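request received
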Amino acid sequence: MGKRIVVALGGNALGNNLTEQMAAVKVTSEAIADLIESGCDVIISHGNGPQVGMIQLAMDELHESDSQCYPRIPLSVCVAMSQSYIGYDLQNALREELAGRGIQKPVCTVITQVKVDPEDPSFAKPSKPIGRFMTEAEARALVAEKGAAVIEDAGRGWRRVVASPQPVEIVEIETIRALQSAGQVVIACGGGGIPVTQQGLHLAGAKAVIDKDFCSELLAEQVNADLLLILTAVEKVAIRFGKPDQKDLEAVTTEELQQYAAAGEFAPGSMLPKVEAALRFTRSKPGRKAIITRLEKAIDAVNGRTGTVIGA
Amino acid sequence: MGKRIVVALGGNALGNNLTEQMAAVKVTSEAIADLIESGCDVIISHGNGPQVGMIQLAMDELHESDSQCYPRIPLSVCVAMSQSYIGYDLQNALREELAGRGIQKPVCTVITQVKVDPEDPSFAKPSKPIGRFMTEAEARALVAEKGAAVIEDAGRGWRRVVASPQPVEIVEIETIRALQSAGQVVIACGGGGIPVTQQGLHLAGAKAVIDKDFCSELLAEQVNADLLLILTAVEKVAIRFGKPDQKDLEAVTTEELQQYAAAGEFAPGSMLPKVEAALRFTRSKPGRKAIITRLEKAIDAVNGRTGTVIGA
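response:
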């Protein structure tokens, strides 16, 4: 034990609205407190798809109601707001869970910007779903009225999509490291970080949402983590997913998982970015491992009892 | 020099909407960078009146448009969102200003909760203005439709008001101290901090906005600052304000300023909380000073060339 772990939380760890979030962060905090109690040094990152979509919708509607008083709020600022909307509840729930176990460890949220390349090809091809699911009619209206890009998402309905460039550099990395060195539990890179592009000394907000798994991976490299723990809704990564001969993966080498990914075994926008993030991390330095498992199984997976362990 | 300073930024340092904010934070960053460049150790706090009002309005309207999908967002969560809405722009502008001067100092924003007493008398008597100015007709409609409390604010129009309890404890103080020890520039206690009340181990969000001057004062005590620098729209505190024999105050003792305050020289909700915060700080420990001055005069005031210096 005593591992340094970056925990990447998926949508199920946070819920889709504030009522769900306030319930979800309790379960999430128990899972994370288990890791801390067992001696792990934990840094937390998380997604923000439904949250940033909700915030952008609210800010767009306010702007449209009175455009003089309320200028349009760029997506980057909405990502910033989602970091405290989520971080406040999460840090509070985790602080409470730790206190209940007699662990007096500060928990904090760092507002984090992440540089992206303005030439990233994703800017020409929006693909990251944000906000709630819509009917096809609602989606078509959004395209017609606001010129938004939309996609049909995994059979669950339609969603707005935005560009999702690769994370290049975490601007506030020294802040995260200082807090980690001080023994604090840090929530950082929320929603994949606030996407910015470097323009001279200026960092300009980008109209994008960075994939939280890729950003968590970069974070794990930058804080020299031993383990990237990607928590999601399934206990193990599967090949032949949903077919009669579906096979759950337990311990896999980087090479094996790479072959499955190349063979198209994992769904883009769903399991594929998690697998790719895991592969990047295990390749980044010898001895680094990644685990993909269900939120509630975090401590069991870290203790080698379940989950898909990559780079074992 | 080499002083430890808590800088409390007023509304003029941030503007009333995002367009104004993006311009204002540049001027603000120059003033703060002057202090850092001269060797001071700076911690920044700020108000959020217009910003939290804007966020609450947007979230209320979203809730009213679809209450099932979007539960009502409590004021405490809106305060949290205002911390990153402002902190992101401010940390970014200050990072850029410092980089332009060749100072590579990390700047960060800490999402900060502040405990208040649930029995604080202010809960029965809302007095803190938030949001934009309204006409009397708009204000009366808000009272009728939403049961909001409103006041006529300093001859400038009507505003919504909320409770403004006294800050009791800064929950994330250890995070602020760790970053300060690491030589970083910290933005904390934004908007007076997210107001919470202790209920067992749980911290419940409170329907309130803490006065940013009182919260900055508590912060200054807790980080053992030498100086509380309250930046506002006037260069010096005045007695007989607006009268033919108006007199600007330069160096005053705690006792002198206390006498002026007791004589009703300062406007409640405007100069009075700044004066009271300054008095609390200079009384908290021998040798502590407070300065109230105009944003653009910060470095001159710290160097003894202007401003109202309390506890001199």
